[in-house]
Amino acid sequence: MSQGRIGFVVLLLIALLAALPLVSPGDAASAHQLEVFSWWTGPGEDEGLAAMVDEFKRRNPGVDFINATVSGGAGSNAKAILASRLLANDPPDSYQRHAGLELQDDVRSGKVVDLTDLYESEGWMEVFPPGLLDNLTIDGKIYSVPVNIHRANLIWYDPRALSALGLPGPPQSWSEFLEQATTIQSRGKTPLAVGPQWTQKHLLETVLLGELGVDGYLGLWTGRTAWRGPKVTQAIDTFMKVLAVSDVKSAAADWQPQLDRVMSGSAVYAVMGDWSYAYLALTKKLGWQSEYAVAASPGSAGIFDFLSDSFTLSVGARHSRLAREWLIECGSRLGQDLFNPRKGSIPARTDPDESLYHEYLAWDLQQWRDPNTRIVGSLTHGVVANNAWNSEIDTALGLLVQDGDIGKFAATVDDKRLETS
Ligand code: GAL
Fold first, then answer.
1. Is 74's C-beta closer than 6 angstroms to any atom of ligand 1?
2. Is the Cβ atom of 46 under 6 angstroms away from ligand 1?
3. Tens digits of per-residue pLDDT, 129-157?
4. Mean pLDDT of 341-357
5. 41, 181, 255, 400: which has the fewest Cβ within 10 Å?
6. Torsions phi, psi of 277, nearest 5?
């Protein structure tokens, strides 16, 4: 090759190299990566996520899916870790929140991207129920995509245990529960199993709902029901009586061991959301209505205390294109039908393949859709109170369980409502 030709080839190579993007093999891999943050690690919680992730990977071949999960029911550990990551501007690409006021802080502090355009391009305004869309809308925009509907106001039991104790069925009111508790205790068993503090708050919410009814319960979050008034005082007093016949002094470490106490027969009831279905039916493989059963928590038949897991797109996400693909998966009919039968929830969409929802989930779907059902939102799982008020309620509840001072609890919750709104 002549010198001139060699020079030309060298120049050509330099030009080609300059045109290549400045990437290392590591960067190339990370460009096709997606980090999704949730608290679904536990038995009964991760299968649904895994099914949706598999489908997502099929649609996005070669994607490196980072399943950033932090264990602890109701996000009890995950939420603190997420908060510190958001504060440090090190967000996961997409993270789990609940529909409702839980996302308000993230919206106001600019942590999440407005997804209204995705709702329009995917036609989601037509496939999610209007009431849910209302709960997802903050300051006129929508910032997360719901994967499911969960029900919180449920009481789980082993029907064989009830028969052995001569109990006619699950209690229809909290006063009937307390009557049954006397019988149960006389037979050497614990009437109610509880877990860590968030499960006690979940219990409080269902006692308030059962004692105050729909309007009284809804008014707690809007200011129409007086926290300091006699009806609420009475309801909190009932909560204390219920707690007194529980195993709160040696509470279970999380919601799965809480249910284990019922299924092993040392306790008779547990109030918990319907993620329990995935644990009992799918993980433990117990028989519906023969080895485990469920009813609306006392006093709340015909009421659906809902919550909805939803995923966001972080501002500053490293992989926002793939994160949008992930959100499309979350909002798709197929994604929801893969996820929900395994998660123990029903789709947020109104057009699921109903043949996939059996046993408890068939009842759940029917209750959710029944026009006579009254729907309210969960406190413990992010719907009705913002994070600041919710965490003040946590602190006050911790003290209430210790000192039993109902007046102080009600007054603190009431005062903090105004301070944090
Ligand atoms: C809720 C969440 C459910 C389930 C439950 C127990 O907050 O919405 O999906 O994870 O906690 O961990």
1. yes
2. no
3. 999 999 999 999 999 999 999 999 999 99
4. 98
5. 41
6. -60, -45
